[in-house]
Amino acid sequence: MADFAMPDFVLRGATVVHPDRAPARQDILVLKGKIEAILEPGASAPAGIPEQRADGLHVFPGCIDAHVHFGMGEKITEYATETVYAAQGGITTVLGYFLNNEAYSDVYRREQEFARTRCHVDYGFHFSTANELHIEELGRYIADYGVTSFKYFMNFKGEEGRYLGLDGTDDGFFFDLLAKSSTVGRPMMVCHTENIEIVNRLRQRVQAAGGITLKDWASCKPALTEAEPAIRAMFMAEQLGARVYFPHVSTRLTLDEVRFWRKRYDQVFIETCPHYLTHTEDSDLGGMGKANPPFHASDDREALWEAVADGTIDVVASDHVARRRVTKDKSMWLASQGFPGTATILPVLLSEGYHKRGISLQRLCQVVTSGPARVFDLAPLKGAIAAGADADLTLVDLNRERTVRASEFGSYADYSLYEGWTLKGWPIQTIVRGRVVMNEGQVTGPEGYGQYLWRRLGQPPVAGKLA
User: Fold this and answer.
1) For residue range 85-102, what is the model confidence (pLDDT) as tens digits?
2) pTM flag (> 0.90)
């Protein structure tokens, strides 16, 4: 395909995939990095506008990875390497989590110094809340830094969070945090649901019995330990008027409880990750497959696909961590948790969801475009192919097959859970605000092209604004 040298062009010949209606053959007029109009095939465009062909391809709104962790790899360069990796997977926007015990005013300025000159795609931040100062300053973070989503680890009680330098908290802290959120505009509260008291007792027994497999790791964290805190969080959110979001949901039991609870309170949103859609506790990956939450049974995997298909799941995101293989290639109890995944979100959904399970392109589009855009205050700038939106486009060849090789991607991480897997359906071009940043696997855009997304509650974000 030809490269788009200018942000003004008309894209012709493709099938446009929309999150709110069936795919259709349409042309897209882009002016000054924005979508100016959706045209009928062959309709006239302004004189002098370059025409680009995308025959046989499908065009998605630029995909969004709403769950990325920065700070786990090579600090100085990871905003470059991990956004290269994102662009290679058709991702045009990433939202990164920070887990800190200090005031976020300092964290924000420090991270922007790394990010603003290195990102290849647009980006935003989530802050994790870990101490009383964070509750006190919650409103400031929204107003002063454009952050409208905050993570709370329900498992970080006692010493659990010490490896990240975080203080232990309790349900009283969580109560005050949700109450505060309801007074500062109801930002999205992202809750890591895990009953650590039960987990700790089970883990002691499993380790004492010599458990060393992924199935043993999963047995320390059965479905109840994910679902029970979710029930508690939903009840407290309802009582306090807060909104809650559960990342990396991994079990049928949690899905069932969320479905039940949404009948009485609909401000509950959920995410799963590609690895829970593809891997189970029976995997022989050993420490390479260690995650939190763990892989579960094949029935849980199929339940998650059912929830993607029926609309229960709002977002599919990677939980991307750019650690090196050496941190994973250890015994189960010493291996680090998590793995890289941004670049394979869309290929996994297309190969395993569309081709193998017949899930519609419209539905898959929702969980990686309009879903995260709606939940995290990115709409209408992001998440749709519509007049006035940023010209973020992911061009996909649905029939392209490619074998995953970590060495061919740009992440600091040097491995992939999908190494050697052949996936069908790959992005071949990634366009951010009208400019190609990836073409046929090669990143073409410069470092620093990505803009910060200053998010606002109930309003469109402001691209490029910094404090």
Assistant:
1) 999 999 999 999 998 888
2) yes
Instruction: Name the region of 117 (left: φ>0; alpha: ψ -120 to 50; beta: rest).
Output: alpha
Helix H, strand E, coil C: the string for 178-209 is: HHHHHHCCCCEEEEECCCHHHHHHHHHHHHHC
pLDDT of 54 over the 50 cut: yes
Q: What is the CATH number of domain 61-375?
A: 3.20.20.140
* Dihedral class, residue 275 (left if φ above 0, else alpha if ψ from -120 to 50, else beta): alpha
Cβ of 242: how many Cβ atoms within 10 Å?
Answer: 23
- Structural domain boundaries of the chain? 9-58+389-398+425-463, 61-375
Joined together, the tokens standing for residue 87 give 């662009």
CB 389 within 8 A of CB 381: yes
Specify burial of residue 67 (Cβ count, 10 A radius: 0-12, 13-18, 19+): buried
9-58+389-398+425-463 classified as CATH 3.10.20.600? no
For residue 321, which of 292, 349, 296 has the smallest C-alpha distance?
Answer: 292
Helix, strand, coil percent content, the chain, rounded in steps of 5: 35, 25, 40
* pLDDT over threshold 90, residue 294: yes
Say whether 61-375 and 9-58+389-398+425-463 share the same fold.
no
